[in-house]
Design goal:
With about 140 residues, the protein is of the alpha/beta class. It has a single domain, classed as Rossmann fold, CATH 3.40.50.150. Helices cover about 40% and strands about 10% of the residues. The protein has a 4-stranded parallel β-sheet with strand order 3-2-1-4, with helices on one face. The longest helix has 14 residues.
């Protein structure tokens, strides 16, 4: 797991900037936000898992979703804390967490689970069980990039 953390730590600021870049992630961000707005129930409890520097968590909070940001990288979460504070939005929690172990949250703690990043460390089908257990199935939106 330390290898995975080191990998993500290596591009912490770049990931934040990527979604502003017209030549890279700006269109991805706009389209994803549009899909989320059309499909998430108003006021939903959302787990932004692997949300890194918090770009989507901030957008979700700005649109009155009750969002928890979880990521494996302490460096990305440090950026998220700064950016969330600067944005002046309320994020329910910012948590260092491994997607393979979501025991910190009770079954069906969230209405939606947003996973927009790659999960190279999820190498077995069994690793996805905690993801499926964390949210209520009638309010799910799955976006794959």
């Amino acid at each position: 797991m330390e290898e995975v953390k080191a990998y993500y730590a290596g591009f912490a600021e770049r990931e934040w900037a990527r979604l502003d870049n017209p030549a890279d992630g700006q269109l991805e961000f706009a389209v994803t936000c549009d899909v989320l707005a059309r499909h998430l129930p108003v006021g939903a409890r959302v787990l932004d898992l692997g949300g890194g520097p918090g770009r989507y968590a901030i957008w979700l909070a700005e649109h009155e979703y009750r969002v928890t940001l979880a990521d494996v990288s302490p460096e990305l979460l440090a950026i998220a804390r700064e950016r969330i504070d600067a944005a002046g939005v309320e994020v329910q929690a910012i948590v260092e967490a491994d997607a393979r172990d979501l025991a910190a949250w009770a079954h069906a703690s969230f209405d939606a689970l947003v996973c927009l990043g790659p999960f190279y460390h999820l190498t077995k089908r069994a690793h996805f069980g905690p993801l499926e257990a964390a949210f209520r199935s009638e309010h799910q939106v799955r976006i794959r990039s």
